[in-house]
Amino acid sequence: METTNNTDKMLKGFFSEQKQEIPDNGFSEKVIRKLPEQADHSWIVWIFAALGMVISIYLGITLGLVQHVLTVVQHVPYYYLLAVVFWFPLVGSGVIYFIQKKHYQLI
Amino acid sequence: MMSNTDDIRWVTQVALLGDKNAFDKLTCKYQSSIRRFFLNLTMGDGPLSDDLAQETFIKVYLNISAFKGISGFSTWLYRIAYNVFYDSTRAQKHYDDIDEQVIDNQHHALNEFSAEKMDIHKALKILRKEEQTAVLLFYMEDKTHKEIARIMNCPLGTVKTYILKGKEKLSVYLTKAGYGNN
Lengths: 107, 182
Fold this sequence. Notes:
The complex is a heterodimer.
Chain A: H1 2-18, H2 27-34, H3 43-62, H4 65-75, H5 78-106
Chain B: H1 4-17, H2 20-41, H3 46-62, H4 73-92, H5 100-110, H6 119-124, H7 129-140, H8 145-152, H9 156-176
C-alpha cells in the first residue's frame, strides 16, 4: 500500500514537472479562420411565428374567441386576477430553479 | 476563473447561433491542454499535434449540437481529441515508423517551449498506446477514472488496469533512470 502511494507521489511529481502551458501564438485565430460558414436557418422560426400569429388572429376573430375571453375576464373577481398575477413570478422562478438544478446535475 | 457554467453558456451560443466569438473563447480556454495532450501522444511532434488539435476544434464546432451535457464539455472535447488521434494513427500507420532522432531534432527546431523536456516522451514510449493515453489523462490532465473511461469509451475496470500497468512500468523506468534520487 505504502509502495503504491510512493509510486503515485513519484509519478504525480514527475508529470507535474513536465506539465507545460502552451502559449496560444495565433492558434485560436487560425482555428476560427478555418471554421466553415454555417447556413443561417433562423428565418424558418420567423415564418412559423408569423404564420401562427395570423392563424390565431383569424380564428380569434371568426370564432369569437376574443370576445369570449374578454367576457370571462369581466366576470372573474378582481382578486382572482391579482392572485394569478402575483403567483406567476413565483411559479416561473420555481420552474427555472428546477430546470437549472437538473442542468447542473447533468454536468 | 472560468467555470463549467461559462462553457455551457458558450456551447449554447455556438450551437444555437453559430457564434464564432463564443467558440473562440472555448478554443482559447482549451487550446493549451489539447495541444499538450497531442504533443505528448505524438512524442513531441509539434506541427502534427497542432494539426490534430485544429482538426479536433473544427470537429467540435461542426458537431457541437451533439453535446448532451451529460459529461463536462472538457471530457467531451478530450473524447473527440482521442478519436481524432486514433483515426490519424490508423490511417497513416505513422507512429510505428517514428524515428526518435528526427523528432528530437524537429522538436528542438520548432518547439522551443518543450525542447528541454524530452524525458517524458522517452518514458512514455515504454507504454502501450492505450496505457499512454490513460496515464497522460490521469497524471497530466487530472482526469478521473470515470472521465477517462468516457473519453476512451471503455469500461472503468479497463481504464484502471491501463493506469495500473502504466504506473508499474513507469515506476521501474524512472527508478532505473535515477528519478527522485536527488
